[in-house]
Amino acid sequence: MSRSKALQYYILTRLLLAPLMLWTITTLVFLLLRATPGDPVDAVLGNRAPDSVKEEYRERLGLAEPLWLQYIRYMSSLLRLDLGTSITSQGETVWEIIQQHFPATAELAVCGMAVAFLVGLGVGTVAASRSGTAWDIGGRLFGIITYSLPLFWMGMVVQLIFAVQLGWFPLGSRFPIAASTPTGITGLYTVDSLLSGNLGQFFTSLYYLALPSITLGLLLSGIFERIVRVNLKRTLKADYVEAARARGIPERRIVLAHALKNAMIPVITVLGLTLATLLGGAVLTEVTFSWPGLGNRLYDAISGRDYPTVQGIMVFFGAIVVLASIAIDMINALIDPRIRY
Questions:
Q1: What are 31-51's pLDDT values in tens digits?
Q2: Which long-range contacts (C-beta less than 8 Å, at least 24 apart) are formed by 160-164?
Q3: 331-334 contacts: CB < 8 A, separation 24 or more?
Q4: Using CA atoms, how far apart are residues 240 and 238, in angstroms rounded to an integer?
Q5: What are phi and psi of 217, to 5 degrees?
Q6: Collapsing DSSP states into helix, strand and coil, what is residue 85?
Q7: DSSP state letter for 38
Q8: Arithmetic mean of pLDDT over the chain
Q9: What is the C-alpha separation between 222 and 234, in angstroms, rounded?
Q10: Residues contacting 136, CB < 8 A, separation 6+
């Protein structure tokens, strides 16, 4: 089988398995939500509401039906791409919630990943090219420390120092409350402000985005630093690198133009999957920084036992991860022709 046909067969298989994976995720979320303590009716009406009112509301939501019937109704709605209506947000559909909150998550995820990739790539490259030196030891310590620090703890410390005590950064929003937000085109404030030609709004958006994205990026950069350092060290010992050195090619050119490209395959894989996970809701980051994204909205929905919202957002997240995984495989195949499926 030729390489192109093998790749096509692999991608086709992944696409056919994607609905099965989404169905598994949806089923697990459906069952786990109903297995956890708590009643969505009590979360909405409170514990002091009369039992007759609670029962009427439960029947209106379809929660009084048998579990298997609830599951069939939900899956039939899902096949029609109907994610349902939120219980806690009266009259607001899950699609409207996703449309409203996902741009904030996407903006935070992309900026955080950009910081993580650039810092991790730079530190890892310097550490690998200077093996056995203080730079190498420093790179190892950097990777271990940033990988080990808890995000919620680091987020609170960073906010306490740079936002509360020093007052350098704002907290709890994407834009000043009293100011008009960028014209809604994509929902991404940085992109919309550039599209409208308003540089003031662009720099304001970056200012509000800086603290959570830099914190998230630095803590994730340890993953990329370790992968880049290990793979680049191994690549620098390859025969073609030794041959390049024998021809008198400068070491810097060998590292950047030859070895680094081949060491990037696992980095791109981790980059894509990590970005997909963050796009699927950086819940811990958003809750810690009170960032108004979809991950924070998911946390509120779980706390309020909002079954339709939790199920709909999780299906949306699952679709992002599955599609991103397929896209990563295609990109890796294009970068490295040696990959076979």
A1: 887 777 777 776 666 667 676
A2: 162/211, 163/211
A3: 331/268, 331/272, 332/265, 332/268, 332/269, 333/3, 333/7
A4: 6
A5: -65, -40
A6: strand
A7: -
A8: 79
A9: 18
A10: 127, 128, 130, 229
Whose structure tokens read 């069939």?
72
Residue type, 217: G
d(CA 162, CA 155): 11
Residue 144, both tokens = 């271990």
72-87 per-position pLDDT tens digit? 888 888 888 888 888 7
Amino acid at 39: D
Domains in the chain (CATH in brackets) are: 102-304 (1.10.3720)
Residue type, position 8, single letter: Q
The single-letter code of the amino acid at 169 is F
Contact assessment for residue 151 and residue 219, using Cβ atoms and an 8 Å cutoff: yes
d(CA 292, CA 85): 20
Residue 93's DSSP bridge partners are 85
Write the pLDDT tens digit of every residue in 112-148.
Answer: 888 888 888 888 888 877 777 888 888 888 888 888 8
Which residues does 211 contact at the CB level (< 8 Å), separation at least 6?
Answer: 158, 159, 162, 163, 169, 170, 171, 289
Radius of gyration of the chain (CA): 24
Q: What is the number of other CB atoms lying within 10 angstroms of the CB of residue 260?
A: 21
Answer yes or no: are the C-beta atoms of 312 and 101 closer than 8 Å: no
What is the pTM (predicted TM-score) of this model?
A: 0.80
Residue 330, both tokens: 């295609």
Q: How many residues in the chain?
A: 341
